[in-house]
Specification:
This protein has one domain: 3-Layer(aba) Sandwich (Rossmann fold). It is about 40% helix and about 15% strand. With about 300 residues, it is an alpha/beta fold. The longest helix is centred in the N-terminal third of the chain and has 22 residues. The two termini are about 35 Å apart. The relative contact order is 0.16. It has a 6-stranded parallel sheet, sandwiched between helices. It has a two-stranded parallel sheet with strand order 6-9.
């Protein structure tokens, strides 16, 4: 299989490249200097140079949630225009697209896990730009998979796990929000799922295009997630300082962009259509902690 990966240097993209290599998949991952996702001509040029292709994966995104409130134009260029240009290029070249999206397309007012067909009402610029990017992919290309995920962390790039580990070395006590519930999801698990889906779709695409949810099994809040992180760090670094996590409401930690209070995703559809069963969030954290620490 031969794939084009957009966003190969990100958390998920880095893992996709590693897993693709282990599965003898030829993965072309142009750097941002060679491909500007907000420029349709740049995309057309890359497609021409890379053909033939079996699949395109878009793992790129503008993810600075608070900064997006001040950089609305840039956020929409990357999260809305970029996916539209990609989907159009894929349609012209008859190549399917797997596009990664986010739980932030929901407003967080639900009390049970979000299914794929529930109404989306994003709260901020980031969520709105991702929601519009999703819709443009649907409008431009029938042969697509949109995969929403949440609370992503991993060995590559910046994320909540690395931030907690760094802050824990400097502060014996940390205040962490406890009234936002979600599913911490390892970039490695997302990448494994992406490769599994495209491998299955290349063999048998019938009736499985559309939108899916994928996140780790089980849910938690940020404060409990932080405590789990410090527990795992302590197992691997005996002299790591003890950190007390104080649970606080989100109102005590104001941010420019409003976060959804509840963003648990229902993953039954991806299990039914692709036989993919997400692992428990804590087991993935335990598995990945050595690699995360190695890449700090």
């Amino acid at each position: 299989m031969r794939i084009l990966l957009i966003g190969g240097s990100g958390q998920v993209g880095s893992e996709i490249q590693i897993i693709a290599k282990h599965n003898d998949i030829e993965c072309i991952a142009p750097s941002s200097s060679k491909l500007d996702i907000t420029d349709s001509r740049s995309i057309e040029k890359i497609f021409s140079a890379c053909m033939p292709l079996d699949f395109v994966i878009n793992a790129s995104a503008y993810t600075a949630v608070d900064k997006a409130e001040d950089e609305k134009e840039l956020a929409f260029k990357i999260n809305n225009d970029g996916p539209r240009f990609l989907a159009k290029a894929c349609a012209q070249n008859r190549i399917p697209l797997l596009h990664l999206s986010t739980d932030y397309v929901f407003d967080g007012q639900a009390t049970t896990p979000y299914k794929e067909d529930m109404p989306i009402t994003p709260l901020g610029v980031y969520g709105k730009s991702k929601a519009e990017g999703e819709q443009d992919v649907r409008d431009c290309l029938l042969e697509h998979i949109i995969m929403r995920t949440a609370w992503v962390y991993g060995a590559h790039g910046n994320n909540f796990v690395k931030t907690m580990i760094r802050l824990g070395r400097e502060h014996p006590q940390l205040k962490v929000v406890s009234d936002q519930t979600g599913c911490p999801t390892a970039a490695f698990d997302i990448a494994v799922t992406v490769i599994s889906i495209i491998s299955q779709m290349v063999v048998d695409p019938a009736h499985r295009w559309g939108t899916y949810h994928y996140c780790s099994d089980g849910s938690t809040n940020w404060a409990e997630f932080a405590r789990a992180i410090f527990n795992e760090v302590g197992r691997h670094i005996p002299d790591y300082p003890t950190v007390e996590v104080l649970a606080i409401p989100g109102s005590e930690y104001p941010t420019k962009a409003t976060r959804p209070n509840y963003s648990v995703l229902d993953c039954s559809k991806i299990e039914q259509n692709f036989t993919i069963i997400p692992p428990a969030w804590l087991s993935s954290l335990q598995r990945d902690m050595p690699n995360i620490l190695k890449n700090m």
